[in-house]
UniProtKB/TrEMBL annotation:
It comes from Comamonas endophytica. The keyword Hydrolase applies. It comes from the Bacteria. Coiled coil: none annotated. Residues 52-178 form the AB hydrolase-1 domain. The keyword Cytoplasm does not apply. GO terms for molecular function: hydrolase activity. This is Alpha/beta hydrolase. Keywords: Hydrolase. InterPro entries: AB_hydrolase_1, AB_hydrolase_fold, AB_hydrolase_sf, Epox_hydrolase-like.
């Protein structure tokens, strides 16, 4: 079985333990996975009575599996964990006519209201999902208790792509495609090339094969910075120290976040990690994320 069809065992096991639900998205559906808590029914508001649910939004060309190394640790805290495949990625249908993050908040908000009722929840977004989470919290603030950005782009305008990625769809040989995927993982996602084992490659390939939004460009703008000005809840940020999107601009990023979010609660750096920080350093990331989620609300 090659990397274009193989599902890593960790993904298969975690998926088998998840509760799978769907909510409308145009004529199709958003697919949600849920773990932990005391169980829930649609709109019932059941689950942990003490801790709010946490909603995890994955990055571009991804799926819920961007969080495969973090879900169990979050669920072990007693939280109910929700991780959708965002519209246009994974198993979810695209928003009709939608090409970027700005079309996703409305069906996502509708799905969250259907699944969680009036319960408040913590919202965590990685990369493209961080930008989407910011747009969601700005447009539909009801229910969003706090926002945690993870490696999120769109904090300022970019004149060109900061990272050169290789095209792979036109390549005929599996070996050539694998080489391109490995290059892209190292160029953008991971700091340590040794972290790109067979399971990591297979997970990445499964995700990029199901990306139906290839022309998105909002991440090259300041869309997130603009949205954060309208976010009423506390905003935390966690980034890998070697995130290629902000290499050499860490101080500038912290300043942009603090100026944009009225209730900015701090930027935390994870050492020895790149853009996909929660995958490369899961233990450190999980501890930091739980600390952010447990912090007293100001």
């Amino acid at each position: 079985m090659d990397e274009e069809t193989r599902i890593p065992e960790a993904v298969a096991q975690l998926r088998a333990r998840a509760r799978r639900m769907t909510t409308p998205c145009g004529d199709g559906h958003i697919v949600w996975h849920q773990w932990g808590g005391a169980g829930s029914g649609a709109g019932s508001g059941a689950g942990s009575a003490e801790l709010p649910p946490v909603v995890l939004l994955h990055g571009g060309s991804g799926s819920w599996t961007h969080w495969v190394r973090n879900i169990e640790a979050l669920a072990a805290t007693g939280r109910q964990v929700w991780a959708p495949d965002l519209p246009g990625f994974g198993d979810s249908d695209a928003v009709p006519g939608g090409q970027d993050a700005d079309t996703i908040p409305e069906p996502l908000h509708q799905g969250l209201r259907w699944l969680l009722g009036q319960r408040a929840f913590d919202l965590v977004g990685f990369s493209f999902g961080g930008m989407t989470a910011g747009l969601l919290a700005a447009r539909f603030p009801e229910g969003v208790r706090r926002l945690v950005l993870v490696g999120a782009p769109a904090m300022w305008m970019r004149d060109e792509r900061p990272v050169r990625l290789l095209g792979w769809r036109h390549l005929e040989s599996g070996a050539a495609r694998e080489q391109a995927h490995r290059h892209n993982l190292q160029a953008l996602m991971l700091h340590d090339a040794q972290a790109i084992d067979d399971d990591t490659l297979a997970l990445h390939v499964q995700n990029v094969l199901r990306d139906r939004l290839p022309r998105r460009r909002l991440s090259q703008t300041d869309a997130l910075a603009q949205a954060l000005r309208r976010v009423a809840c506390p905003v935390h940020a966690i980034y890998g120290r070697h995130d290629m999107l902000y290499q050499g601009r860490q101080a500038e990023l912290e300043l942009a976040l603090s100026r944009s979010a009225p209730r900015f609660a701090g930027l935390h750096w994870i050492e020895d990690a790149g853009h996909w920080v929660q995958y490369e350093q899961p233990a450190r990331f999980d501890a930091m994320l739980v600390a952010c989620l447990d912090a007293p609300l100001p």
